[in-house]
Amino acid sequence: MSTWSQALLDLLICVGLLVVMPLGLRLLPASGLAGVRRLWFAAAAPAAVSVWLPRGWLAAVLAAAYLPAAAALLLSAARVVLSRRLPLPRTVAVATALAGPTVAGCALVAERAGVHLFGFDLDVLALTVAHFHYAGFAAALVAGLVCGVDGDGPAGRLAAVSVPAGIAVVFAGFFTGEWVELAGAALLTAGMWLVGWLTWRRARAGAATRGLLVTSAVTLTATMVLALVWALGQAADLPHLPLSWMVATHGLANALGFALCALIAWQRIGAGSEWGVSGVRTE
């Protein structure tokens, strides 16, 4: 990637660590997460500083401060699954959101240390950090929220399952090949469009909140086309945007237009009583 796109990616990673994650965690219940929320910045701030340092042992040590917080979220994901308090689709969405930061944290430590984890290029590891904060965490969480508002209807259940499934298949494609990654991108695109449509349909809050929800829905329409075209170009060797411009278009728009707008809107709406995905006020 170019120098400017790397700087933009680093900035997006910092926004994910310091803004998106805290906003999303506030939509989840206090049970088991109160300590993580209280100490979040003690873990995330050193990791955010690390992305601006040269690769090496100091950057890796600062990035590693994030791992205990990510591990605590992973443990919470296991509790969600074992508790069976939520319907299965929402369980899948919430557990995926809570597990995403662990993948991001491991990729961040490896990238900052200059280690080609599983043989991946360092740029790919850096992109993985961003992907698993915005798609792995924010998108999966919003899919669960939308499912709750939809009353666990068929469309909401499909959204809550297809977004995590798309994330998982894209991740598998990193190891198995670009055509699998393309299939994952198509599945994730379908799920995100469904999330956008349900968000648009349910956007009946106040004017400001409705504007944020509509912005997040409209953003998904464009950004996921870019993701799908890029994955197709990689798999079929067709013309597509370089990574630098994907960061500046797909990445930036998803971070600001989708994730931030959606999470701020859900903060304004108010989380439900159980895992922030049931009984959400929409009027």
Automatic annotation (TrEMBL):
Which Pfam family, just one, is annotated for this protein?
A: YndJ
Query: What organism does the record attribute this protein to?
Result: Phytohabitans flavus
- Membrane spanning residue stretches: 6-28, 59-80, 92-110, 122-146, 158-176, 182-200, 212-233, 245-266
Which named protein is this? YndJ-like protein
Q: Which InterPro entries match?
A: YndJ-like
Alphabetical keyword list: Membrane, Transmembrane, Transmembrane helix
Q: What is the lineage of its organism?
A: Bacteria, Bacillati, Actinomycetota, Actinomycetes, Micromonosporales
